[in-house]
Each structure stands twice: as C-alpha cells, then as structure tokens.
Design a protein that fits this description.
The complex is a heterodimer of chains A (113) and B (112). By secondary structure, chain A is an all-beta fold. Chain A has strands spanning 3-7, 10-12, 18-25, 34-39, 46-51, 58-60, 68-73, 78-83, 92-98, 107-111. In chain A, strand 4 and strand 5 form a beta hairpin. Chain B has no helices and eleven strands. Classes of the chains: A mainly beta (113), B mainly beta (112).
Chain lengths: 113, 112
C-alpha cells in the first residue's frame, strides 16, 4: 500500500524557519517526482513545489520562490520542505503528493505572533 | 498560469442518482504525446485529497467504477453514477501539464 507520512507540524512566529518531512513507503520512491501542495484554512489547493525523481530539477510557485526549498533523500525515501522567512499567509495544511498519485495526510503549519 | 474553472460550486444529489461536475482549462491540456493531463480529486470531510481520475479518463487504483472522466482538450467532466453517501466531499480538477500545477476551486457534493 502506498503511504506518505508528513511530519514537522507546528506553530511558529513570522520570520522564522521550519522544516517538513514526508516519508514514503509502498512504492519505489526514487522513480517518482514529488510535490508539496498546501491548503489554507477553508480554502482551495495551492501547489507550491515539485522535485524530479533524481533531484535534477526543482520548481516553485511564485508565492514561495526564494523562501522555500524542496529536497529529497532517495536513500531514506524522504521528501523535505525547508521553509524560511515564514509569513502569516503561509499558514496552511501542507501535503506531500506523489506525481499522479497518492497524497499524505498533511501537517498543519501555523505562522502567528 | 493555466486557470481551471469548475462548475457548479455545489451539487445536491439523491442517493442512487448521477452527478456531473465540469471543469474548463484556459489552455489545451493535450500534450504532443497524446496524453491529456487533467486529474480529478475528492477531498472527503477532514481528510486529504485522494486521486480519482488521472490523465482525463483513467480510474485510479481502488476507485469504484461509478466514477468516470471524459472531455476534450479544454473541457472536462467527472461523472458519478449511482451516488452513495460516502461520495460527499469537495471535488477538485487539476492540471499537471505544466508548472505551476493548478487546481479548480472545487465543487461540493452533498446528499439530499
């Protein structure tokens, strides 16, 4: 069974940093591109980052470009999202999602003073 | 960016009847490889989105065959036959043709 399990949930102050992790199982992680997608409270879905299966290419939404960094460790079947200079508008549920496939259960990131 | 426009905003369906949700893209989602990169997701209350349909008309693993997807290069339809109580939630279309990936604003399905 394909599983994606995020961690790193928390409450942080504006301007601070945070790192999310997503551990994959049930499929060959190193064969797939991976995404981070977020959903602000009571809002729709916003894609924020994509990394190719071999880390050769990375893409970001304009809203996070220069502040967030997506990475992966195929030896650990783990996807990461490093978030810097966090803003209140970054408050959302963050999901990792396999290309054309399953999504994790999500972790809540709250940015507030 | 490709804009995905869904309709209706909400739909109320009697169990056993059918429902259709529409999605329109601002640009053709047909790639030169012949694949149309439109996807359908269902977000059940309190849960993460789950993939229902990929590449316009392919049923994702474990999804009941009551769900089907169809369309053209820019106009797409998700049809749910014989709606059941477990189908309630918000349905999103999304495009994976190009970055940034974009989603429709969602259609809420309720049971009468």
């Amino acid at each position: 069974e394909v599983q994606l399990v995020e961690s790193g949930e928390g409450l942080v102050q504006p301007g601070s940093s945070m790192k999310l992790s997503c551990v994959a199982s049930g499929f060959t992680f190193s064969n797939y591109g991976m995404n981070w997608i977020r959903q602000a409270p009571k809002k729709g879905l916003e894609w924020i980052a994509l990394i190719y299966y071999d880390s050769s290419s990375k893409y970001y939404a304009d809203s996070v470009k220069g502040r967030f960094t997506i990475s992966r460790d195929n030896s650990k079947n783990t996807l990461y999202l490093e978030m810097n200079s966090l803003r209140s508008e970054d408050t959302a549920m963050y999901y990792c999602a396999r290309d054309e496939g399953a999504w994790g259960q999500g972790v809540m990131v709250t940015v507030s003073s | 960016d490709i804009v995905m426009t869904q309709a209706p905003l909400s739909v109320s369906v009697t169990p056993g009847e059918s429902a259709s949700i529409s999605c329109r893209s601002s640009k053709s989602l047909l790639h030169s490889n012949g694949i149309t990169y439109v996807y359908w997701y269902l977000q059940k209350p309190g849960k993460s989105p789950q993939l229902l349909i990929y590449r316009m008309s392919n049923l994702a693993s474990g999804v009941p065959d009551r769900f089907s997807g169809s369309g053209s290069e820019t106009d797409f339809t998700l049809k749910i036959s014989r709606v059941e109580a477990e189908d309630v939630g918000i349905y999103y279309c999304g495009q994976l043709l190009e970055n940034p990936l974009t989603f429709g604003s969602g259609t809420k399905l309720e049971i009468k």
